[in-house]
Amino acid sequence: MINLAAGGLNLLSVNPGLLVWTIITFSVVVFILWTFAWNPIIHALDARSEKVHGDIEKAEKLRNEADALLSDYKAKIASAKDEAIAIVNEAKNDATALKNKMLADATAEIQARKDQSLRDIELSKMKALQEIQESVVDLSVNIASKILEKQLKAEDHANFVRNEISNLKKMKA
């Protein structure tokens, strides 16, 4: 075997006493570690594993909640867009209705003014005709008095002419 120059130890040789004591020491160390250290290490690893699993479940739950909130947010945005479109459409409809009402009011006012103007014209026409009739009566009286060379009362003659004109109007009607 190999002989070392320093101490004369042979490293590859088996010493049965040393082997037995090494096995006994190793067994005692394993027993002590098993009894006092192994269980706390296993419990710590199990606790760590449970914490990791809990954190994973919690993260999954939070992700699901976030997804639900996101979908709720998207639904609210879609609802808000629909509501905004409805408001804009309602405003357009209101504006159209207001425009139509204003046009109808303006048309009605124009028609009313036209009708009033026609009534005023008719009234003016009637006044003018009445004035013409009165002038005709006066003129007829003057002419008749000149023709007859007789002085009639102007009032009697005017009543006579008015009655005759009324009779003519009744005949027309």
Quick take:
With 173 residues, the protein is mostly helical. It has two helices and no strands. Mean pLDDT is 84; it is low at 1-6.
Task: Describe the secondary structure blueprint for this structure.
Blueprint: H1 16-148, H2 154-172
Describe the structure in your own words.
With 173 residues, this protein is an all-alpha fold. It has a domain at 59-172. It has helices spanning 16-148, 154-172. The protein is rod-shaped, with a radius of gyration of 64 Å. The termini are far apart.
Distance between the termini: 165 Å
- Report mean pLDDT, rounded to a whole number: 84
Q: Which structural class best describes the helix and strand composition?
A: mainly alpha
The string of secondary-structure elements, in order, is HH
| Gyration radius, in Å | 64 Å
Helix content: over 70%
Number-wise, the strands total 0
Unreliable stretches (pLDDT < 50, length at least 5) are: 1-6
Please describe the biggest sheet, giving its number of strands, its sense, and whether it closes into a barrel: none
Tell the overall outline: rod-shaped
Oligomeric state of this protein = single chain
What count of helical segments does DSSP give? 2
> DSSP strand (E) fraction?
under 5%
Which short descriptors sum up this protein?
173 residues; mainly alpha
